[in-house]
Amino acid sequence: MNNPIRAILFDLDGTLLDSNMDVFLPHYFKTLSARMAHILPPDEFVPHLMWASNVMMANDGRATNEEVFAAAFYPLAGYSRQELEPIFMDFYANDFPALRQYTRRKPQARQVVQQAFDLGFDVVIATNPLFPATAIEQRLEWAGVADFPYRLVTTYENSRACKPNLLYFKQILAGIGAVADACLVVGDEDMDMVAAHLGCVTFHISSPKRATCAISPTLQICWLLWYHIRHNLCRRSRMVNNYKVQVRVEIEECADTTTDEPSKEDVGVFEWVVSAEQARSIDECEQIVLRTTHDALRDAFGHHLSSVSQQYALEMAGSLEKCEVKPYRVDGEIGRVTFDTYWVEQMEEQSDDTAGTPFPALHAKEWYRTTGFKELALVYGSTEKSYRKTSDLINRVRHQEDATPSRTLRENTEYEGRQIMAHVEQQAVEILHEHGFTTDGTPTDTAVDRSERVLVTLPLAQVEQAIEACAPEPEWVEEMANNPVAYEDPTQSTQVSLDDVNVKRQKATRKGAQDQEQKHKYVHNTIAHISHAGESYIINGNGIVNVLRLVLAFLLHNHLLQYNLIFFVDGQRTLYTAIWRAFAWLQPVQIILDWYHLEKRCEEQLSLALKGRVIRNTLLEQLCPFLWHGCVDRAIALLQAVEPDKVKNQEALDTLIGYLERNRSYLPCYAVRKRLGLRNSSNRGEKANDLVVSDRQKHNGMSWSKPGSVALAAITALVRNREYKRWFQAATLSFSFSPAA
């Protein structure tokens, strides 16, 4: 031991307080959901709460657990934090105390904590920080240990990670100014024992039911605590040996009887005796080798990981006698593998580290999905083809029929997409706060410099020369030159293309939801394509306001607001309104109406307004050149001069005139922009929408749930942004044009 113990980190639930979470949590959810029932029905509230809690448990330190939970839960619930947080606080003040009946006080807990203080140690309550301070203070009182002067009590307000994330323990060590090997972590679960990986001394207690010695639980725990602190008998994890992977495939003649399938001869050794005809056939031999090899790979892989778990348990507990054997399931690129892991049920007095397994914890019947599986199934599968086809394909290439069902694949895909969306949301909130913006994107007094900006444009002489070259007639030059849309310098500009797409919504299956489904037959996705200096990034989400908030966070994170900000849109009035509201503080911002949509709108309105296709086409041939050259006054005058006997619907004609008047400031001189090499179209956003949503989700017979559609689009955007390797390996995103490897 390099340093004497100076601090003790006590877990709370199961360690100082006798509380079975399998009993406590159902009552907690029931009581809290009843308290919220007037806002959200329990069948909606509880899943939202659990989802936000999972996001909080995945916190990587970018914000406090409280902020991460708020960013995930309140938008999902559809209510603001200001509306719901007082209800939460009232629940903890008036309803939460009644849950004490589902816990019991441990008589020995106070003696152990008192002894730790008497011995002069810094004492920390290192409970998993999933609750606010008021809830943890109450549970300390239930345990009878609330009145000690703790160095730190972790709550969701002051913590930026959760167990078993090592960052949680790192932040505690930093907060109390202690080195790892001078700290003793006392707990009852594997998530406490992971602190050993930092170099902390760890001590796993056993409940009275699991104690084997004749002395009382009080004396047992106090004596063991004293023994391990004073005599330094806490073992530290040793370095893992290297491993050698050998693969040998042999095909040789034999006199054995042929078999119908591979048979196991030894660990990682499978044998298949086939006929000479099969062995001499290129196609059949290939399949035989692959099938036999995959069986051997899976067997060797599972055996190795089971041995790793066994060795780990021996290091932690010193014996396998007290271990419970549990199956561990892996869905990987080599197929589905199930192997035994060894979980410590009871430890001897000489043991101190009792982490159950070196592998990530799983829920019942959950499968661990490897990065290779995710790349195969999501990147090259679900984002390109249907879940059924993807399931058939990955099971075929892994030579394991019916291994991963299509329904499981869909659930995995949607879960991964939700995780991505939650991470992007969390990252966006942190970026906004870092730069002085509120969560909804409103600048505060500490926001970035909002002094008046100047649009960086192309040289005037270059523009004038282009106008002269493009003008059909000399008299058009003046109006073209007076067009209000500037000619931005593309090297000093950031372009944002926005587009919406709707995919067919699945029919409601819940009772009472039918009326709502009749009103909303489509799932709405918004795509933003951001480009600058030849690089691009795609952001997806539900609703233009939300996506613009994410766009703002991206622009801030990548220092892009120093450049011209140009939006390309398709003419929806809601888009203009949302853009101006989101960026009203940042001027100038330029919006350009896509030429294709302008031409299409004119054609549609003239079809409604005029008598016959011939009259419409004749007028359209006169109108489009005016608009293409940015002469909106000439276009409006042309429409106003249409002879009454050619009009069948004056209202439709007036609507088109009003449309041009209203969008005058967004209608550039398209001809000059084209000559100068500037963009005229939002087609990059529409193309991004095709790649992210339409190509996969808009096919005959396909329908989608709202979470399923947006989640799948999130994974597709992840792939298009070349962020998937980083996400699968580290569960984080660069949120930038050039993601790091």
Q: Point out poorly predicted stretches.
A: 207-224, 226-240, 346-355, 508-519, 688-694, 700-704
Oligomer: single chain
Radius of gyration over all CA atoms, rounded? 33 Å
User: What CATH architecture of the domain at 7-231 would you give?
Assistant: 3-Layer(aba) Sandwich
Can you count the helices? 27
Distance between the termini: 38 Å
Provide the structure class: alpha/beta
Mean pLDDT across all residues, rounded?
A: 84
The major β-sheet equals: 5 strands, parallel
Q: Main sheet: which strands, in order across?
A: 5-4-1-6-7
**Overall morphology:** globular
Total count of strands: 17
Q: Determine the strand fraction and express it as a percent band.
A: 5-15%
CATH names the topology of the domain at 7-231 as: Rossmann fold
- Please write the CATH class name of the domain at 7-231: Alpha Beta
Q: Could you estimate the helical fraction of the residues in percent? A: 40-55%
CATH superfamily placement of the domain at 7-231: HAD superfamily/HAD-like
Describe the model.
The protein has 741 residues and is an alpha/beta fold. Among the domains are: 7-231, Rossmann fold, CATH 3.40.50; 263-369, no CATH class. Helix content is 47%, strand content 13%. The strands form five sheets. It has a five-stranded parallel sheet with strand order 5-4-1-6-7, with helices on both faces. Helix 12 runs antiparallel to helix 27 (724-730), helix 18 (544-557) packs across helix 19 (573-583) and helix 22 packs antiparallel against helix 23. It is globular, with a radius of gyration of 33 Å. Residues 207-224, 226-240, 346-355, 508-519, 688-694 and 700-704 have low confidence and may be disordered.
